[in-house]
Amino acid sequence: MAILKVAQLGHPILRMIARPVPKKEITTEKIQTLITDMIETVREYDGVGLAAPQVHESLQIAVMEIIENPRYPNEETVPLTVFINPIVNALTQETMEVWEGCLSVHGLRGAVSRPNHIRLQALDQNGRTIDQEYKGFPAVAIQHELDHLQGKVFLDRMTDLSKLAFINEYRRYHLKDISI
Fold it and tell me: Where in the sequence numbering do the catalytic residues fall?
């Protein structure tokens, strides 16, 4: 197990569309080690999710876990979820605005509106099918990770750059306004 180096905004891998993982390769030692290391890395940095391109691997793999996270207090608990080759469909046009942060965009938070009810279809770390609906913050977190697999970061989704802040200023002036 290892804590991996996280690519920062400006690194070309964050702007690449990640390659799908062939189902037969999911259970290989290489992919399983990557998944284990991604889990250790996201936990080390108190992240909610992490996509393989963020750790310099252009593969459609992401992990998510929301459990007593100091960066996102008071959010619904979601157990560790690994999703490979994900497809996300919005199940509503209703959106929610969340001040998103990112391990690859260190030190900033920005308000992004995303659909608040989605369906995730993917494969898990054992190659089994996932077909699950998510609402609220977990739905937003999944969409954030899916963006990484498509070469996007949350800044690309912002429509109002006046809602971009350094973390200290976000905590001081905006945290009380929006619960995340």
Answer: 145
